[in-house]
């Protein structure tokens, strides 16, 4: 009776572990980039200020690698003002997180330090804002799970959509101001160029008249 | 008796939570500079998943609007077939149903020598089908509805990202227009003044003493 219980427990534990593994594989997805043997490969994103950015990267093991070399890659993450947010040399995996202080283009550059014959593939899982939210801590704190947690996620997604719309509205108004200023400037500068033309012509005539009068030709 | 029941229900909830998390679809939104060919790979977990996304050519310092023919976009399935092919655009949306699961390759090809920055967004969405419902007794029909809702919200988010990238491109054009207006107009004024001064100098030279008595 006890043995049956034990085997049942063991089986359920293994299935749970397998499921966890599956979910981990499913979650640690990301885009794969091929880093060339020479030069850097950079990815960037325009991020507003006060946005949480979470990124995971690892070198993808090449199956057709006869030398069984451990490929290592170096990377550098810079803020739009040039500050170095994260820099690692010759690593196979890692992760970094930061909250954007200023809005602008955040750049993550990869390059190969040692000499490699083939380009190295790196998997980068880059999440910003709502995708970077840690749902496990939220679930534990608010003691919700299952369907409730999913609905909470959807609610957060809707909130993010609304915030994005408000941001786009601000951007549109900024751009509209620039467009209208440029429009006014084009009109003003064109009329002024006409004025400059007439002025320069008048100056020419006046100067030449004076010159010919001086030379006693008129 | 109560303890074992609680254990069983908690285990069920954990399994359910794990399964829910496994339907977490991947979202990538990044910009990459395309010199010649740039490829991005994305893994599609299940066959029949809807892969949707968009891309916009953001940074362009072209002089005339008709100069750059745009970039080409190709999607290759893990079997090697071309799933999607868009030629010569400055930005587009795409959506297709993945025929197989595996690693899909999304390639941007820049026919010109000037490097272009492309901002792209790829989303792989999975909705549990009837087959999955039948296979797994822990899945409720409510999970299907929640997944559909999530996919609908993701499509709204995708549209927003597309609009944001287009807005960035528009902003670049606006800034370029503003700079061009100022510089070209000031340059035009200076050129005008310079040309008229040269004219005056030339006419004066025509009437100068060393030349006048011979010519005019």
TrEMBL record, chain A:
The GOLD domain, residue ranges: 40-153
PROSITE patterns in UniProt: GOLD (PS50866)
Keywords, alphabetical: Membrane, Signal, Transmembrane, Transmembrane helix
Residues spanning the membrane: 186-206
Leader peptide range in chain numbering: 1-30
UniProt membrane topology term: Single-pass type I membrane protein
Domain of life: Eukaryota
Keyword Ribosomal protein: no
Compartments in which it is found: Membrane
InterPro entries assigned to the protein according to its UniProt record, in alphabetical order: Emp24-like, GOLD_dom
Entry's family note: Belongs to the EMP24/GP25L family.
Name the record gives this protein: GOLD domain-containing protein
UniProtKB/TrEMBL annotation, chain B:
Pfam assignment, any one: EMP24_GP25L
Alphabetical keyword list: Membrane, Signal, Transmembrane, Transmembrane helix
Entry-linked InterPro entries: Emp24-like, GOLD_dom, GOLD_dom_sf
Signal peptide region: 1-29
TM segment ranges: 181-203
Compartments where located: Endomembrane system; Membrane
Primary localization class, coarse: membrane
Coiled coil: none
Record family assignment: Belongs to the EMP24/GP25L family.
Listed PANTHER family: TRANSMEMBRANE EMP24 DOMAIN-CONTAINING PROTEIN (PTHR22811)
Name recorded for this polypeptide: GOLD domain-containing protein
